Amino acid sequence: MGRIAYILGIETGTDVCSVSLSRDGETAAVKESGGGNDHARTLAVLIDGILKENGIGPEKLGAVAVSGGPGSYTGLRIGVSTAKGLCYGAGIPLISVGSLYSLAAVAIEQQGPFTAGTILCPMIDARRMEVYARLYDHDLRPLSQTGAHIISSDSFAENISEYEKFLIFGSGAAKCREVLANPKVEYLDVRPSASGLVAAAWEKYRAGEFEDAAYFEPFYLKDFVVTASRKKFF
């Protein structure tokens, strides 16, 4: 029997600060803050707590997975910097998972599975009436690129008309409730969580798909640009 692979997950791209510990691709524990923007102080406490409560030292981790964006500039920087520090200190690889993919995975975990004909639209609040969003089908296959959208009554109109159900969730969803009035649109109460990193991180771990800890930077979605290197499923 091979060595057990423990992966620490870090999610800090929104006002939620969350960490997870998985064992061979299965969630073992999750700890998170109640919301707020004190990630610099909270994150270290959560990591220390989840490792101690499960009898795991950093040297026993197989990898650290981090939410790679888009999201809060400060939050992402804190999460990635912490993940890099752990990886350097323990000599383990760094894995990144797209923040919107992770959020969609949490939606399926908490309220799925969903049927064919359903679109998942995870949203992260940006500024004013703007959100970061990406569309996925019920099996988490991407239907669009990650983009910045200014919400209006016409937002996602073509996608809403084409499919049976359009599910909106995440920190940007509140901006849509009064603007997108369509019987096909439903709003789910889904908060970001490091549990959404687990499945994708395990797949990347087994495939050896790691980031360069020295040069990796979060995907901030600045200037509304989506580069070719960001066109992965997660």
Give the SSE layout.
Elements (H helix, E strand, L loop, with lengths): L5 E6 L6 E6 L2 E7 L6 H15 L7 E7 L5 H18 L3 E4 L1 H13 L6 E8 L4 E4 L13 E4 L6 H6 L2 E6 L14 E3 L10 H10 L27
Parallel strand pairs: 1-4, 4-5, 6-9, 9-10
Antiparallel strand pairs: 1-2, 2-3, 6-7, 7-8
Number of helices: 5
Portion of residues within helices: 25-40%
Instruction: Give the neighbour order of strands across the main sheet.
Output: 3-2-1-4-5
Largest sheet: 5 strands, mixed
- Helix-strand string: EEEHEHEHEEEHEEH
Q: So what's the overall shape?
A: globular
Q: Mean pLDDT, nearest integer?
A: 91
Features:
234 residues, single chain, 10 strands, five-stranded mixed sheet, alpha/beta
Written overview of the protein:
This protein has 234 residues and is α/β, with parallel strands linked by helices. Helix content is 26%, strand content 24%. It has 5 helices and 10 strands, in the order E-E-E-H-E-H-E-H-E-E-E-H-E-E-H. It has helices at 39-53, 73-90, 99-111, 157-162, 198-207, and strands at residues 6-11, 18-23, 26-32, 61-67, 94-97, 118-125, 130-133, 147-150, 165-170, 185-187. The strands form 2 sheets. The chain has a 5-stranded mixed β-sheet, with helices on both faces. Strands 8-7-6-9-10 form a 5-stranded mixed β-sheet, covered by helices on one side. A hairpin with a 6-residue loop joins strand 1 and strand 2. Helix 1 packs across helix 2 (73-90). The longest helix is centred in the middle third of the chain and has 18 residues, at 73-90. It is globular. The two termini are 29 Å apart.
